[in-house]
């Protein structure tokens, strides 16, 4: 028998319901979220999720559905009006005035409605289109589709009626206009308190926690948990009931390093902030052709140890358990990207190639938000495997690597990680050191020097001329020249040129001072040789020889202890005094010649004179008392022992024996340092305590963490720092003084010395006992240098 002519058709089993429902949506949380996304696409301002008496209601105040919407869209399996562009064609005029049409939609596959089956076996759908009074009700028993797999899907009847009004839902107010109510009964699983709290956390992350949609609120209600909520609220624990919100931006803002990238209209704008300070802002052309029709905005946060601790304390969860880099499509989370074990962008795979060079997901929090027309990016149907792979997703991966991860990495690795103490800072105090500023300048230089990159803005205080005493001065000047040329900053170019001239003058002066010191040493050596020759000639007289021999032994022992030390100290005084003499001479010469003196240059010269004079004062103390042999500008020794001996044996002669005490316990820190410069730090702290009318100052050394080295508490009982009169954040700045008679250089010099050693100094903000307490942190030196730290 021949087949009848004409086309044949697929037949669809009733089992299709399971395939596109429970088999795809395997997570109850995802099922709830799919229904919330439908409310978002319906332009709802509010969604209420209500658990009561074994049932679940999802209520939104969106545009609602007409009878035709239900028949031709909701009941049309796999059809998506969002994909065809018909979703909002029949919006009532009044509703159009209420909303702003979105560029994209959260869902577009036409299967999210089967999430209802995942949650419960019965569904009553009520909907009223905005601007009308007509209510439509759809009754579905999902078990009807499970009786006979041979039965045609379309043959199973669904009852549709038109009740007079929308039903009352427990705990919430009735809808005043349009909206949709999903009443899901015969729930398939028990929703315990633990599971409800998990749902709350899940929704908080799924609705973009970094930039949530401002036009839709989500509320969770469960009457059975109200009593337990009262108890947990009193303890500060999370509660089930209430609005779904996320304070993550409040927690992270100003406490982390944040990179913000915006790709729109063919341009990529990138801004980097370190805690509360702008580092740079750049713009470049978009090289990704397949991403041109999308608007991509991203925020990537690096969390140091301090930020992680703050996050855990405020959020009640460790950052690593919260997630890493989330992906959002048209305002809603693409699951499971960003979950604890997810490495969608290969961040951890990359970190394995170089642990000290790359960031991992444990270091990062962030979001990538894509707003794009329907089908530009497609979420996988299973709802737990991210985006469908395509050429666009490959370009997205490249964009994330090149413009987010490596840009943030370059700054964190080269600037932040280079300062071992920065891990425990919540502010940017460490960025003001010459070393940190030099590293920042280098990062900006590398960016500004790239083809196609336009430097729009930068922190002019941090990225500015640095002290000509800084070891990185010459490289920093090269970087600043690139920045100045890129931005057309003529003032910066002029300051660079002045700084370079001063650097050359100082270098020449230092060389001249060294030559003078060497000449003095040669004269002294010649004189000592002549003296020894005279003693040898005296050996002719035997009797005098014996007497002279005994006397010479005594003189030789004294010379070994004192003369050599004083000679070397004298050598240093010549160098420091020559630097002062040259600075004064240069300015006097300019005055005599009638040349204009730049106030900036004059201030720099005076600061240089002050610093060198501090060194001379320190040398005089060594020369009279220090039991210490200084055979070089730098020495490698136990820094803590040196500080102890200086405070106890040297400073005590000038300040009084009972004025200062030093408690180092068993602490030891062998490292390279300049003794004279360290004494300047101690002298300034002692002098400031005296000026504050303190009768005692104590130095206490303690071990804080293996990675940090040592911390020294310097505490006095003086007047303290009056916050009403003195800006505590500025007391370490050059030229800022808390007293009318101060120069504003003492603590500035102390800061320069400590930061040059890789450490930090600051006021203890928690100290309220009267007087002042300074915290000095000294990092553990590299083991490669043979240094050691003990406690």
From TrEMBL:
Organism: Sphingomonas chungangi
Any Pfam family matching the protein: HATPase_c_3
Ranges in a coiled coil: 493-551
Superkingdom of this protein's organism: Bacteria
EC number(s) per entry: 2.7.13.3
Reactions catalysed: ATP + protein L-histidine = ADP + protein N-phospho-L-histidine
Alphabetized UniProt keyword annotations: ATP-binding, Coiled coil, Kinase, Nucleotide-binding, Transferase, Two-component regulatory system
Histidine kinase domain sequence ranges: 681-782
Protein name as it appears in the record: histidine kinase
Gene Ontology annotations of biological process type: phosphorelay signal transduction system
Entry's Gene Ontology molecular function annotations: ATP binding; protein histidine kinase activity
